[in-house]
Amino acid sequence: MAASSLISLVCLVFTIFCLASMQVSASGVFELRFDRFQNELGRDAKGHCCDGFKTSSPSSSSGTGGRCSEACRTQFRVCLKHYQTSIDLSGVCTYGDFSTPVLGENSLDFSAAAANSSSSVNANKDNAANGYTVRLPFEFSWPGTFSLIIEAYHQSSNTTTGKVLVMQMATQRWMDSSNAWKADSYSDADGLHALNYSYRVKCDEHYYGDGCANLCRPRDDKFGHYTCSEPSGDKVCLPGWSGEYCSKAICLPGCHDEHGFCNDPNECLCKLGWQGKLCDQCIRYPGCLHGSCQQPWQCYCNEGWGGLFCNQDLNYCTNHKPCKNGGTCFNTGQGSYTCTCSAEYTGTDCELVKDDCTVIPCLNGGTCSGETNATCNCPTGFHGRRCETSTQQTCTDNPCLHGATCVDTTDKGYMCLCPDGFDGANCGHQVDDCAVNRCQNGGSCVDKVNGFKCICPAGFTGPLCQTDIDDCQTDNPCLNGGSCADLVNSFRCLCVPGFTGSLCQTNVDDCLTKPCSNGGQCHDLVNDFRCTCKPGFAGKDCSQEVNECSSRPCLNGATCIDRINEYKCVCPRGYSGLRCERSAAAAKLNATAPTVLGSASRLSNVPSDASLSVAQIVMIATISTAVPLIAIVSCVVIVCLKKRRQKEQMRSDEEARRQNEQNVVHSISKKMDKMDKCLEEHRIINTLDFPSTGKGKAINEPDYAVVQTKDVSPHHHHQQQQQQQQQQQQQQQQYNIHRTSKALNVETFNSDKLLNSSSCQSKEVISSCEPTYVTLDKRLSVTPSVTCSSSPSEHKRPFPLQHEDVLATSV
Predict the structure, then answer these.
(1) Backbone phi, then psi, for 678, in 5-degree steps?
(2) What domain range includes position 581?
(3) Where is the signal peptide, in residue numbers (predicted)?
(4) I want to staple 310 with a disulfide (CB 3.0 to 4.6 A). Which of 291, 414, 748, 782 is the partner?
(5) Does a structural domain hold residue 291?
(6) What separation in angstroms does the CA of 712 have from each of 481, 685, 709, 719, 772?
(7) Are strands 597-598 and 768-772 parallel, antiparallel or unpaired?
(8) What predicted TM-score, i.e. pTM, was given to this entire model?
């Protein structure tokens, strides 16, 4: 087992390493599109309700129980990993994973939701009209095979609950990169969940091929001029470029292969010694005038030229043709010539005209005057140097235009007979037939030769645009039996009742007015509607309440009271039951049933399986929450009242205890006063600075043991008494408090015996008073005191002191 896990780990690390090494050479994205998800009953993967409880019986059509009262808040997780023969559902998603937010409840139709949504989507999803798309990019050569895991979860609104698995699927597939989607589906064994989805592998920009591993980035710079072909990504050179990287320019067509070159397409740059548009002309020797070359820097003289630079004209007459007016040229060599002129001209180049009348005769009856620079005097109607031009045209001059017939006249010389559509002296003016527009309905008139043409606006035809085109003449465009009414270049559909729209293509929704009463459900028909009434109502619009008492369900003379979808039977004395069907004798055998409500559904003896309504569910949830809360609040109130009562009892007990203490102190104080009268000579002096009174003994010592000490002299006693008397006025109050507190501690002191034993009301009781000496813990000075007794034999009888905090005496 350990060896198998180690091998799997090594394979995974090797795969990740290979993918990391290919990141620079490939890039693309795996796209998964959710089309539809079905979870009609709102169950999780175990068949339990995601939330809430089942609201219908297990006899539903699914065979797995009813619909849950609360919906599943559905979200998805997509895991893409390398191909595995046995898919590890808990392993690492080597190609990537993504979790969507909550997309909806129970069943989801993503294509319909996306079509109705106009919102944009986040960076990792494409909420296009085709569905909800998840994109998982990769940067390695796509292998073609992959493993896909899709999980649906219920995300509870309670943060402590977490996610609940609703559906889980895993599959292996193969697909090369393509822009086309491949559809797939999944359905679990119990039929509770179904998923329709599509997927594709799409290369990123500039990446091509089945594995998106062919990088081709279009460019147009000095390193190349090309685009990329689909889907292989081969380089396609831009026009005018060639070569492996399309970096070699294609020169102008015809550019000489050897004598020309180019840096950019369709240009031809010549090498040294060559010229011309195509670099096919050699450059002659500098200074060569009338010569040619076959190679650069040559000068071969043309015919009639000679010399080193071919600048000597050997055939001047042929090259320059200097003789004018028909003169004949003769070469005389070295660039010279002579001209032989005709009889009418003279000069070196025969450029001068002879002016004598013998040479230039006058025409058309003109007369010549002068011997040199002679001129012709022309008769009327002619002009020119020799009177050769007539000033009055005739038909021989063809003055008539556009095929008009010319007739010679004596006064004007000629007359033109114009054809139809033209007029004027020479028939050169075309008659405007559109001067009076005869085109109808806004048509435009175009003039033609001896006629016109009307250009009709849309919706009209005919020579004069007089005919309205019937747009309803062809196939009737109106749908659902609508009648077509022709308009100008348009039509209007007259719809039958129940339809509307420009083509009567829309069925009027008769349910928009909500005609169904009492909660009835409306179903639209053609120009009509149908209401599905709730139980207890009937009629076209569910406005009629069904009288459940019409069937007389109550028996034995009971009175029937009609209610909505139910009835109530008020039974006469001696009868009971739903329909008052049980007599008093039967009622004695069975528990007496109260008057109950009946309904038409109960009369049919068909068990009703109506599910709880939303209001009932809310009421149950409210009661379920309120009852424990009220119980908790009640317990808290009871505990608080109890503690309050205890505190009041403690305060009452404390007050009673304080009152008892005061009473005890008061009683003891009275008894002590009686004792002081008897023991007025018995005095204990306190040296601890506690106050003492002038009579009787002072009980003001702390809790100390009393021991017998030696006698003290009367003189010493007198000095101490004077010192204490000075402090009596200042310490009287402190003494009283101390006395009271010490008296409270006398719990076992038998005051009655003390008083009885020390009573000195009768002088005869005290027969002997012997002086004694006592000391309190070696810190008290003792004065002589007497012990009262009733007889001499009992003079040593001590006071019955029983508490260690009270004075203990030794007689």
Answers:
(1) -80, -35
(2) 547-609
(3) 1-26
(4) 291
(5) no
(6) 147, 12, 9, 12, 11
(7) unpaired
(8) 0.35
